[in-house]
Bactericidal permeability-increasing protein
Amino acid sequence: MSWICWFVLAAVIPVTLGTNPGVKVKLTEKGLEYGRQLGIALIQQKLKTIKVPDFSGTEKVSPIGKVQYSLSNMQIVDVGLPKSAVDLVPGTGVRLSIGSASISLHGNWRVKYLKIIKDSGSFDLNVNGLTISATIAIKSDETGRPAVSTVNCAATVGSAKIKFHGGASWLYNLFTSFIDKALRNALQKQICPLVTDAISDLNPQLKTLNVLAQVDQYAEIEYSMVSSPTVSQSSIDLGLKGEFYNIGKHQEPPFSPTAFTLPPQTNNMLSLGMSAFTANSAAFVYNKAGVLSLYITDDMIPQSSPIRLNTKTFGAFIPQIAKLFPGLMMKLLVKTVTTPVVTFEPNNATVQATGTVTAYAIQPNATLSPLFVLNLDTSVSAQVFVSEMRLAGAVTLNKMDLTLGTSYVGEFQVRSLDNILQMVLKVVVIPKLNVQLAKGYPLPKIGKMKLVNTELQVLKDYMLIGTDVQFTS
Ligand SMILES: *[C@@H]1O[C@H](CO)[C@@H](O)[C@H](O)[C@H]1NC(C)=O
Ligand SMILES: *[C@@H]1O[C@H](CO)[C@@H](O)[C@H](O)[C@H]1NC(C)=O
């Protein structure tokens, strides 16, 4: 390969590898502890499905001599997993350790000895001191969803205690000498495959991550992972794309996510960081879709307002309007001209929008006669909140600046329209916007996940959602 190829590769690789996530998810030790509880319940269910094969054979048992025996119909009665722990394995995933576990089973015994004597009954077996240790790797699958797999597993069984119902005492000799070890081996052999099964059973759940979630008729948000999860000493961190797109038309905005770091310490199971990039990609999509515009007519202004959208009201400030277009109703078109910009500063989410306001007189034949175009610079403050599994908001007007774009009615003092325009923004535009914002957009979600004890803070460049989760089945 020539030096120029190396040079090109060197220039390209860091860019493609360096895709910063727009949304970050941190699973804390508290979250892991909740995961342990759910996982142990699954493993317990799985271990209850252990099938113990029938045992039979012929052995010499003192003091009887040759005995034909069989143990059959063995059923697991209970699996006890009283002690377990989950530890993070940096770079890989988690280690699950189960100790002091026990399995109880019930079955039937049958013996034949001294050629003609037959006896039978039932028994209870208790296997104690079981340990299981499994390392579980967490990766990203080809669709950007998390996937888990068991990379190693070891199981040991401790001692077994049997209680025969009926029969003679030499049955214990038969058991301890010939059956005990084989039975424990048969159990032990099944444990790891079942644990591995229980772990892979999590994958269908993990596959429900909404990697592409529809927001409304215009937008969807992508939550696929941009890289494999990072497992450190204290947390598992996922980087999700967190980008809004036009439905079906994925055009990249002319800006990209900046790196941000979630705080390490938290009292919650999950931390979710939503970057300003995510919000800005939404602004890009809606602006591109042409939906950030609104025609305002007089019927949208509250009846109680003395200010009306007609040439009489506006004529009070711009006399030419009353003179040239007497007795006509008016219409305003408010729209953005560039993508609004969202900024997150500590405790402060602000949206800055640049747009225009075009005023028309409505002729009796419905023709619109343009009166003027104003340039509008606004800044609104946003309150953001989590509602169900959605992130919603509401904005209030901070400030508004008007300058003249074009006048079709001669010169006038733009400042004289400040109050009217402020009123229009406050009573029409912002309430309409807030109806949309209140609907919110979906947060990343797996299965039937519910958020509890949720708190949201606005920090520099991202919003931090600290939350506990609950899975309902
Ligand atoms: C929030 O930040 C904007 C600028 O980013 C500023 O104009 C506004 O005054 C701030 N609001 C508060 C409450 O600090
Ligand atoms: C509508 O009325 C206005 C003013 O009277 C006139 O200038 C315009 O040509 C009319 N347009 C149509 C389509 O009739």
About this structure: Residues 395 and 430 are 7 Å apart (CA to CA). The chain is about 25% helix and 45% strand.
